[in-house]
Specification:
Distance between the termini: 49 Å
Number of helices: 18
Structural class: alpha/beta
Radius of gyration: 25 Å
Largest sheet: 7 strands, parallel
Number of strands: 15
Oligomer: single chain
Length: 550
């Protein structure tokens, strides 16, 4: 294979030794078109899990570093210039304490260990220009940026996901030596304009906006069979995820077990540490239930998933996960003409909306989910097909790998040409919440710097504030004519505002616990509403689908 003019050093947490970071499965073949790719993972214990494209050179540390070596590096880091800078910035922001100091030292140790290992690789002796690309914005990234000291033809980039900014479980801000890393890194890529705005607002000082760029994910198009599969009367649901606690498969099993009407065929693709526990639970709850079939198919690579989707008639791709940073599996379902229903958590809203699928509440109750499944069983399958077509059109326009991954790989190959002082062109998209009345278009003023955007108050909240202000003006104009009515309206309005849960724009929303919405950066925490009957909740979701059907 002919050598390319540039080398790429891809650093991952787990890939290809895990089913995590699955977006790299699509990106890698495009990167090989521009670079000689060298892949390094921090995963030292697990066997190789994915097949890499031809020509990709794989390596990883043979063992984890010993405790004595880590102690020595930690002692050195305590007196380093980087530690002093992070301490000063933390003190100025009022977040420096003993725990923060320990975390900073841990991150500096990780950075130094990664830097030392990468410098020992043969690729570092190659004279070709080198781009270092980290699949995550994690602790060791600062160590990668320090490698730039070796020469001017070395550039460092990274992807930053929501889980790299805020803990998915607690919603707390994650510190990853952001200040000193931002100074040294050449470019940081985000999956959406909303994620980029959140990072710029919370983790930067507003300098060099051109470093922070949007590179949407992409997946390939569907596999086409000459003879499409036959339909049957069952509602066929597919879930695809690691079998872990945060995917809430036991909740789904309980919901299926509680169904009183409908016939359902559920298949799950994926494996994980909770496999045996979930399988045993499914046997106990679903084995003898009439009208229900289920099957756990184990793990599949992307090619196997696409072939399965093409050879089976699937009505709904369902996700009830409590966290989903990079929803690649949902994109694959959309590309394969499968209607996607998912909880509106983390990065899901970057790819799924109520115009391209269906967003459910972040934490649906068991009764709500059961009623929802029963409603789906009674739905006309033509409606699923029409909704799936809209999802396919969304994939074709926004998430086609031929465009997104090729554009991203091309930009990485010319990362030295990025204009650091130019704010990237914002991407305009329409997002819809799971509530039918909350449909708005995200509009980012072209002349407004990204640092001024307040992710803690989304466009949905701003629109709501504008409406409330207009209502207040109308009430004031009618003061003399209807004083009693005005007083009653003001009381109602005050009550609504008291329960609106509107976050302040000072960054404190990132510290709210997960049970308060788990959306610290760019999702509204939601208004407190009166509880509705379970059947009414499910009816509203289905009615919304019918209204939006073509």
């Amino acid at each position: 294979m002919a050598k390319k003019p540039q080398n790429l050093l891809l650093v991952t947490e787990h890939y290809p030794c895990s089913n995590q970071e699955s977006f790299l499965e699509t990106e890698l073949p495009y990167l090989t078109k521009f670079f000689n790719v060298y892949l390094v993972t921090r995963e030292t214990d697990k066997r190789m899990y994915r097949i890499l494209p031809p020509g990709v050179i794989f390596s990883r540390p043979s063992t984890k570093s010993g405790r004595l070596k880590k102690w020595w590096i930690r002692t050195q880091c305590r007196f380093s210039h980087a530690y002093r800078i992070e301490r000063r910035e933390g003190q100025e922001e009022g977040r420096w304490n003993r725990a923060q100091a320990a975390h900073t030292l841990d991150a500096l140790v990780d950075s130094e260990l990664m830097r030392q290992y990468l410098l020992s690789l043969p690729v570092m002796q190659d004279e070709r220009p080198l781009v270092i690309y980290s699949a995550n914005y994690n602790n060791y990234l600062y160590g990668l940026t320090r490698i730039k000291e070796m020469g001017k033809d070395i550039h460092v980039t990274a992807r930053c996901h929501r889980a790299n900014m805020f803990d998915p479980k607690t919603g707390e801000r994650r510190e990853t030596l952001n200040y000193i890393t931002n100074k040294n890194i050449d470019a940081v890529y985000f999956t959406s304009e909303e994620r980029r705005s959140v990072y710029v607002h919370h983790f930067t000082d507003g300098e060099f906006p051109g470093k922070y760029r949007v590179a949407p994910l992409g997946v390939p198009g569907p596999e086409v069979l000459l003879e499409p599969p036959e339909e049957d009367y069952l509602l066929r649901i597919v879930t695809c995820s690691p079998i872990e606690e945060d995917k809430r498969l036991t909740l789904l099993i309980d919901a299926i077990a509680g169904m009183k009407i409908g016939c359902l065929d559920w298949v799950h693709i994926g494996d994980g540490s909770e496999r045996e526990k979930v399988l045993e639970y499914a046997r106990d709850r679903l084995e003898n239930k009439p009208g229900i079939r289920y099957e756990f198919l184990g793990d599949m690579n992307q090619e196997e998933r696409y072939h399965y989707y093409a050879s089976h008639k699937l009505d709904v791709f369902l996700s009830v996960s409590s966290s989903e940073s990079v929803p690649t599996m949902m994109l694959e379902a959309m590309a394969n003409h499968i209607f996607v229903c998912a909880t509106a958590v983390d990065g899901v809203t970057d790819v799924v909306s109520n115009e391209t699928g269906l967003l459910m509440p972040e934490n649906p109750t068991l009764e709500q989910l059961t009623a929802f499944l029963e409603m789906l069983c009674n739905m006309d399958k033509d409606k699923f097909d029409s909704r799936a077509e809209l999802g396919y059109q969304c994939w074709e326009k926004w998430f086609n790998a031929e465009e997104n991954c090729m554009r991203f790989a091309s930009e990485l190959s010319a990362v030295e040409n990025i204009q650091l002082d130019e704010t990237p062109e914002p991407v305009h998209r329409v997002f819809t919440s799971w509530k039918p009345e909350e449909k708005v278009e995200v509009v980012v003023p072209e002349d407004a710097p990204a640092v001024e955007q307040q992710p803690s108050q989304t466009e949905e909240n701003k629109a709501a504030d504008t409406d409330n202000a207009s209502e207040g003006q109308q009430d004031a104009a009618q003061t003399d004519q209807q004083p009693d009515q005005q007083k009653e309206e003001e009381t109602t309005k005050a009550s609504e505002e008291a329960g609106s849960g509107q976050p302040e724009a000072d960054g404190k929303e990132a510290e709210q616990p997960a049970e308060q919405g788990n959306a610290p950066e760019d999702e509204p925490s939601g208004q407190q509403e009166e509880e509705k009957p379970i059947e009414q909740e499910a009816e509203e979701l289905i009615e919304m689908m019918e209204k939006m059907a073509p």
